[in-house]
Amino acid sequence: MSRKMKNKVITNLAIERIASEGKCVGHHEGKVVFVSNVAPGDVVDVRITKGKSSFMEGEAIHFHEYSKDRIEPFCSHFGTCGGCKWQHINYDLQKTYKRQQVLDQFQRIAKVPIPEVMPILGSAKTQYYRNKLDFTFSNSRWLTREEINSGEEFERNALGFHIPKMFDKIIDIEHCYLQGGLSNEVRNTLKEFAREKNLSFYDIRKQEGLLRNLIIRTTSTNQTMVIVQFGENDPESITLVMDFLKAKFPAITSLLYVINTKGNETFHDLELVTFSGLPYIEEEMEGLKFRIGPKSFYQTNSEQAYELYKVARDFAQLKGDEVVYDLYTGTGTIANFVAKQAKQVIGVEYVEAAIEDAKLNSQINGIGNTLFYAGDMKDILNDEFIANHAKPDVIITDPPRAGMDEKVVQMLLRLEAPTIVYVSCNPATQARDLALLGEKYQVEKVQPVDMFPQTYHVENVVRLTLKS
């Protein structure tokens, strides 16, 4: 950005609409201006932080008018914590913007004929809907400007979330409205216990400290998993913490810990110790049980995941004699969910541990018509694989945010399955893939689903059928 643009202030900018990734849009002297933490209808002064030939980005520094669609955020951490960026926008409008986001991406990127995008399926819960949260211990609590200017000394140990774009600063969370159950009580009680016992909170810069991370997972069946991640191998202190949690919270059904001295918080390659209870929790859906281990993936909004999977199953229009390929199957949730309506379901997933979970979930539920394979999708879905299995009548694909590898898309075009159901957490990459699939497929249905209220994220399900 040129020096001339840096810190330039645009006054009385009218915020017009919401764009991708939750940013809002205004226009100034023929350029688009992207602004965060505002709402359509706001009139603001904006300090420019980034400028290009065709657009600028900035931050609102003064409000002249507030949008009529604004509401009062319910969380005291709003605006600092980066988790719920749309709390200031009423939920009906959030849904409208999310549906529009799908439509915009399809028109701009997919450029294939689409039917009318159906009304978005809203989440019954707009608070306390998440079943998994990760909290980070830190000896470097983020301080407000007021605290810094006061010159006073403040408690620096914190347990909460990373401040956006600041890897070493953690906002201390008092109450989080994302997860219900024992979540807030466990976090706050453990934090106070650690402070009282002078247990060290992690120093991310020095890569040292006992208490590093806390993960809480819950289910609709009232089971709770708590995982404590320790940054040091101190058996006496570890036992002190785990004994405290076990005694204080007998409702925890799965209490585990892991010692992690690596440079990051990921623990998929580390051994977890079950301190108390079972090494897993179980979710239920239409009588099916899904076992969730500490390393398992499961959709983080359990109740809305059920609605999402019902849409996918409905779009598949299974009659009972179809062979279904479930690509990016994860722990086999969709595969097992549709298995009763299909002749056979073949699931493919990159993560080997997830495939083991998928097989286990089939076994637990007495499902005998599923097959699961682990491997890179673009490598495993080849001519040899197809030759060794029946050709698919229906393909369900639920890729990560990056979408499908182009080799996978080309294989789908070669397979020519009569129906493809494409579940996506990123309408932009979904639209990109639909542009390629448009060579042989037409879009029949588009159904957005809101999995994450108070955020700009939206899931989308598309039914594609082979052109005649």
TrEMBL record:
Domain TRAM: 3-62
Pfam annotation, one family: tRNA_U5-meth_tr
Keyword field contains Transferase: yes
Keyword Transferase in record: yes
Family matches, as SUPFAM superfamilies: Nucleic acid-binding proteins (SSF50249), S-adenosyl-L-methionine-dependent methyltransferases (SSF53335)
Residues annotated to bind S-adenosyl-L-methionine: 299, 328, 349, 398
Keyword annotations from UniProtKB, A to Z: Methyltransferase, S-adenosyl-L-methionine, Transferase
Active site: 425, 425 (nucleophile)
Membrane-spanning residues: none
Highest taxon, organism lineage: Bacteria
GO biological process annotation, one example: rRNA base methylation
Molecular-function GO terms, alphabetical: rRNA (uridine-C5-)-methyltransferase activity
UniProt similarity note: Belongs to the class I-like SAM-binding methyltransferase superfamily. RNA M5U methyltransferase family.
UniProt protein name: 23S rRNA (Uracil1939-C5)-methyltransferase
Native species: Algoriphagus boseongensis
